[in-house]
């Protein structure tokens, strides 16, 4: 025994409790548990029995020792291999130096270890931090030359295993997200390898393309669909694209129409490695567009006010129309409610969840009309979007198209419109294929269409096509009994909007309205009431709040001067004799106000 060899025969090394040991095994299981079971199997087959393999955590606690003999050797489980007790060990050196270390026989400082040899290697996580140490121990006389070699390859194997597990965990998680994304979207997604074989396809893709996903994986895309897949172009160009429109004719499934994006996949060296193909059915695109641009009806029949026989008859026919799919022609002067009726027919019909697309036939410049109505194919004319665009008829699919001012529909396009109505399909400008559309047509006009036909501005055959159900909206002057009802309705409706509190609508306000001829019909009446509410400064509407042309036009019993005098008195009272305000409200100058006060002997009441 040399002097510097400690003999601690009667002193016990530090040891953690069994619970603590279990806790430590649990926290370190990432790196040590998998290899332990493998090693146990391996060791059981080895003839040589006198060596030990130990796993020690970074706090120097022995987590596990395994041996073919079943014994534990010197580094027993739960013991803390600290320097104070064990002195120099390969475990201690390996941990502090962060490298593989071998300590043989008398290089140990503890007497009991003098006839032992031990090799240790640190185990690292993917960031280089030390998880712990693995060590190989045997009696000196049995210690093989390859002790350090064994431990070195074992530590590398453990690190690889841990890394592999981390990666596979990561992939499992990524796959989970990928599954959620690809299942959650209604867009089709197909991943293709560099030869255009299918690596992955989501359910939506299978549905859109009418193919069975399971039978498609690993096959060439050309072999699973019955048309020439447009994605193949990307395999030639190696260039992707975003949101391009494609219309494909499938012999089996008819027209497939979608918006597509293709993303090229490249390997680390930048070589083409495949394509991810995203595609969305055009129906979904249209639905989005129409909800986005607000092509939705907002009126229904209960919003149409009036009890006159003529109006009731118009409502009766419109309700019948709403239950059918036939073309409707609404005729009526401006402001009689043509658009309102068209909306109600749509809103209360079978297509209420589809778009309500308004086309004002007179408002679109002739040269743009065709592309606006019917769309165009890619690159069909200069100035057109390279990618092509759908027209309003296509966007109205499954809904109603309201052709307002049909009398102004360009003569040159009327044949095309007629064909659309007959065939229920459109052909875009520059295209040859017909795109099927399911639309309901409601046309409206405030012109006498028969005159337009006589003047050869409107095709007779088109007129007959549109005129399946005709609805005639009476002018307001022909249903004067509706005027008081409409007045009250608008006063109520607009008071809310203008934040007025009208308690009374005087007869002197309503009477002149019932005899007025209303060239602008209900819209004009609505405007008159909005104006009156704006100028009314108290809570009663009376003659003073009506525009002059209505009072002027009113062949009532009173003379015009009488009416003027009364309205001046009223306005003066309303404004508490504020001459400036009175002049403003009546639209006359201040001197004129004074002139009339004198002329008609109007006196301020005290
Ligand atoms: N019967 C009615 N009840 C309630 N409001 C009505 C009625 N008729 C028309 N209106 C109102 O009048 C306004 C004008 O109606 P609409 O736009 O439908 O008329 P139009 O016949 O299409 O007119 P134009 O020929 O000028 O386009 C509507 O905004 C609505 O508020
Ligand atoms: Mg209109």
UniProtKB/TrEMBL annotation:
Domain of life: Bacteria
Family annotation (InterPro entries): AAA+_ATPase, AAA_lid_NorR, GAF-like_dom_sf, Homeodomain-like_sf, HTH_Fis, P-loop_NTPase, PAS, PAS-like_dom_sf
PROSITE patterns in the cross-refs: SIGMA54_INTERACT_1 (PS00675), SIGMA54_INTERACT_3 (PS00688), SIGMA54_INTERACT_4 (PS50045)
Gene Ontology biological process terms in this record: regulation of DNA-templated transcription
Pfam families for this protein: AAA_lid_14 (PF25601), HTH_8 (PF02954), PAS (PF00989), Sigma54_activat (PF00158)
CDD domains: AAA, PAS
Record's keyword terms, sorted: ATP-binding, Nucleotide-binding, Transcription, Transcription regulation
Gene Ontology MF terms: ATP binding; sequence-specific DNA binding
Domain Sigma-54 factor interaction: start-end pairs: 304-534
PANTHER family noted in UniProt: C4-DICARBOXYLATE TRANSPORT TRANSCRIPTIONAL REGULATORY PROTEIN DCTD, TRANSCRIPTIONAL REGULATORY PROTEIN
Record protein name field: Sigma-54 factor interaction domain-containing protein
């Amino acid at each position: 025994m040399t002097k510097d060899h400690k003999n601690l025969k009667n002193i016990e090394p530090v040891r953690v409790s069994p619970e603590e040991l279990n806790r430590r095994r649990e926290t370190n299981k990432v790196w040590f548990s998998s290899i332990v079971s493998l090693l146990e199997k391996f060791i059981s087959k080895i003839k040589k029995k006198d060596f030990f393999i130990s796993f020690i955590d970074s706090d120097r606690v022995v987590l596990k020792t395994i041996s073919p003999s079943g014994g534990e050797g010197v580094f027993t489980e739960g013991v803390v291999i600290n320097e104070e007790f064990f002195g120099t060990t390969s475990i201690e050196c390996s941990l502090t130096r962060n490298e593989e270390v071998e300590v043989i026989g008398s290089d140990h400082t503890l007497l009991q270890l003098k006839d032992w040899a031990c090799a240790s290697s640190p185990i690292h996580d993917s960031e280089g931090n030390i998880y712990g140490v693995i060590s190989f121990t045997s009696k000196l006389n049995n210690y093989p030359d390859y002790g350090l070699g064994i431990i070195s390859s074992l530590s590398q194997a453990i690190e690889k295993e841990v890394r592999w597990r981390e990666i596979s965990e990561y992939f499992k998680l990524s796959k989970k997200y990928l599954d959620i994304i690809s299942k959650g979207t209604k867009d089709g997604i197909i991943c293709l390898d560099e030869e255009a074989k299918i690596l992955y396809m989501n359910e939506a893709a299978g549905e859109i393309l009418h193919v069975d996903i399971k039978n498609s994986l690993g096959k060439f895309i050309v072999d699973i669909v019955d048309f020439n897949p447009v994605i193949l172009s990307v395999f030639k160009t190696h260039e992707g694209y975003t949101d391009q429109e494609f219309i494909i004719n499938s012999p089996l499934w008819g027209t497939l129409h979608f918006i597509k994006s293709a993303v090229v996949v490249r390997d680390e060296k930048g070589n083409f490695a495949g394509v991810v193909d995203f595609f969305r059915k055009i129906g979904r695109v249209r639905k989005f567009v129409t909800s986005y641009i607000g092509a939705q009806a907002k009126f229904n029949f209960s919003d149409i006010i009036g009890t006159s026989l003529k109006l009731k008859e118009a409502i009766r026919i419109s309700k019948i129309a709403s239950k059918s799919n036939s073309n409707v022609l609404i005729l009526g002067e401006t402001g009689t409610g043509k658009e309102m009726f068209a909306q109600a027919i749509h809103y209360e019909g079978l297509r209420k969840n589809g778009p309500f697309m308004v086309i004002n036939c007179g408002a679109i410049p002739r040269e743009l009309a065709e592309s606006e109505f019917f769309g165009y194919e890619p690159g069909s004319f200069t100035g057109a979007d390279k990618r092509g665009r759908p027209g309003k008829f296509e966007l109205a699919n499954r809904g109603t198209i309201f052709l307002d001012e049909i009398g102004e529909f360009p003569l040159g396009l009327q044949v095309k419109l007629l064909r659309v109505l007959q065939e229920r399909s459109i052909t875009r400008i520059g295209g040859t294929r017909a795109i099927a559309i399911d639309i309901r047509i409601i046309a409206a006009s405030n012109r006498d269409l028969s005159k337009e036909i006589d003047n050869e501005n409107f095709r007779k055959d088109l007129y007959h096509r549109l005129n399946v159900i005709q609805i005639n909206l009476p002018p307001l002057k022909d249903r004067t009994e509706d005027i008081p009802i409409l007045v009250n309705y608008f006063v109520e409706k607009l008071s809310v909007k203008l934040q007025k509190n009208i308690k009374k609508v005087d007869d002197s306000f309503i009477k002149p309205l019932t005899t007025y001829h209303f060239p602008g019909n209900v819209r004009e009446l609505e405007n008159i009431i909005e104006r009156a509410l704006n100028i009314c400064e108290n809570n009663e509407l009376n003659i003073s709040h009506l525009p002059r042309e209505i009072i002027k036009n009113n062949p009532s019993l009173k003379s015009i001067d009488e009416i003027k005098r009364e309205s001046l008195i009223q306005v003066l009272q309303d404004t508490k004799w504020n001459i400036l305000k009175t002049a403003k409200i009546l639209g006359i100058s201040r001197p004129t106000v004074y002139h009339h006060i004198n002329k008609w002997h109007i006196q301020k009441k005290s």
